[in-house]
Amino acid sequence: MKRFCPESHQYAAIRIDPVAMVAHFQDPVATAMAQALHPKTYLVYLNDAIDLPFPSSEWFRFDVSPIGTTLHPEDPAHGISSDMAIPIYPNTQHPTGRAPVRTKTSFPFSKCYHWADNLVTVRIRSRPDKYDDSAAVKVSSREHLRMEDLLWQDSNRIDEFLQAREEQVIPTSVIPRPASPSSQDSRLSDGSDDDTEGLIRMDIFNLFPHEDDENEELLPLVDVWFDLDTHLTEDDIPSPLEFDKERAAVAQ
Length: 252
Known about the structure:
Blueprint: E1 2-3, E2 10-16, H1 18-22, H2 28-35, E3 41-49, E4 59-66, E5 85-87, E6 113-115, E7 120-125, E8 131-132, H3 141-166, H4 184-187, H5 194-201, E9 221-225, H6 228-231, H7 240-251
Parallel strand pairs: 7-9
Antiparallel strand pairs: 1-8, 2-3, 2-9, 3-4, 4-7, 5-6
């Protein structure tokens, strides 16, 4: 089925278009610098659309998770351990035996992982011929929620570590957060001051100002494809760390 905007909860290949990102400046120097970049194609998971899409939109903001082919790199200074990842079936390898993410149709790669603390915002460019995601590898709502819960637990561990480091005390146990980011109802039901923040985050009509609105032009502008094995092979899937470096280079 063709759609003017992609759906969430499916995997995609994406590539940044740095030349298009600077075209509105009409600056020959900026254009030349953008042309000198050689962006790679990355494997990502489309988490959620940020705005309500319209057929007239030139692009659509999405939160995406770049996918790695290894466990999460250790970063002891920030409380990140290698087990803060979830394998994607047919990959079943994990230090603590976490069950892999199961997709609705076969996932074409055998050694991929979701990483914790690994969410970035991009602008998916619209297509005149629309998006055909009929062959996309998708995740069910139930499986998406399970994955989000596990990654939220990892994020909680990271937050607890960083808080303890600030206090110069390392806790012996981790207290779980009272809510999961996959449950908007629970976030908004405690009557706290976070209610307004939650509502703004749910602003599908984009009526409220967002922190990144002023810097939208710096968000990666990407093309998207759903035929994964046409644009990527098992051995050439770049690391999410490379995507971070690339988008930083483009933003400069």
